[in-house]
What does this fold into?
Amino acid sequence: MRKWMSIFMAIVVVIMLTACGSKETASGGESKEGTKGDNVLARIQEEKAINIGIEGVYPPFNYHDEEDKLVGFDVDIANELASRMGVKPNFVETPWDTIIGGLLSKKYDIILSSMAITPERQQKVDFTDPYFHTGAQVFVNEGYDGIKDPEKDIKGKKIAVAIGTTFEAKATELGAQVSNYKSDLLTFQDLAANRVEGVITDKAVGARIIKENGYPFKPVGDVLFEEAAGISLNKGEDELREEINKHLKEMKEDGTYKEISMKWFGEDIR
It folds into this structure.
């Protein structure tokens, strides 16, 4: 009986020691796993790398040049931001319609891909301070006169937009027959083929695509709306947001932002 009692007590002691050790590891907060889960900025600084979600097909903000290198305004801003943070930027190219999902599932730390700040998106993710302002423009073929006042004339017209964008929402609001595409490049291709009557996209993006492809298109009317774009991050990551905002502010104050903006647009788009 005493022998079995001794064995029982030994087992109890082992279980207690194991439990105490596990509790110390879990609550100590010193493990790399704990750091990653609790403080994204700390993990980025520890690993010396920041993972950035980006679409990669949105010129001149982010796209591939003739050598298939990822370039654009967003890319230059991201590179400068990472440099000031002392980390390496790792770009993760993701289709626009799944880019927020990728952030929520933590495939990357931030989205830096010309994302407009909207109330709907703010329910899912947080945003930094705006890093540029722009507007939505309607583009049509040079000889087409079916749309003169976009606010009134778009109703019933077949309008191409990139899926999941604020442009899609506006086209729907104005009563257009909305045709969704994976990217703006595809919307302009179908406008060239006369499969749609117009395209709604960012005014700078449209102008760039028209220039680079020699399309016989023109903008119609004033911008439908203006919007501010921010860098997206998961909710609760206040330290990371403050760190990014600090560097964005410094970039704007020391002239670096203006230099990058002039390179891509010939003007300061802050």
About this structure: The two ends are 82 Å apart (CA to CA). The longest strand covers residues 132-141. DSSP finds twelve helices and twelve strands in the chain. Residues 1-37 have pLDDT under 50 and may be disordered.
